[in-house]
Structures are given as C-alpha cells and as structure tokens.
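Anyone have tokens for DUF3073 domain-containing protein? Sequence:
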Amino acid sequence: MGRGRAKAKQVKVARRLKYNSGGTDLDRLREELGVNDEDSTQEDDVYDPYDELAERYSDYADDGEEDDREDQTSRR
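Reply: yep, here.
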C-alpha cells in the first residue's frame, strides 16, 4: 500500500532534477568528491598505454582510409 507515496516522491525528485538544471555548485561538488585543482592540471602527465599504440599504428590507420576510398570509387 505504501507504493503510491514512494512513487510520487520519486516522480517529484525526477522532475526537480529534470527541470531545475541551474544552481549546481561545481566547487562544492569538487570538494565532496575530493578532487584537487592540481589533479586536473596533471592529467597530461598520466601514462596511457593506448597513446603509444595509437602512435605506433597511426600509419596503418591512414593507409586503410585511402584503400576504403578507392574501393568505394571503383564500385560506382
């Protein structure tokens, strides 16, 4: 029997989130999540193994695009 009240409350919260997009305090959110400004500036220094692979195989990706274009023009 209590399902109606719970659903009504969920609908009310969902509408509030949907239609009241303003008023988000991003600084407070950063504090709650424990994100420092220093962390966001050091993202460039983070090692990403995919960067190395992308650099290694970038020539192959470019060649494949040209082959695809030639195939499409020959089909027409």
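The mean pLDDT is 76.
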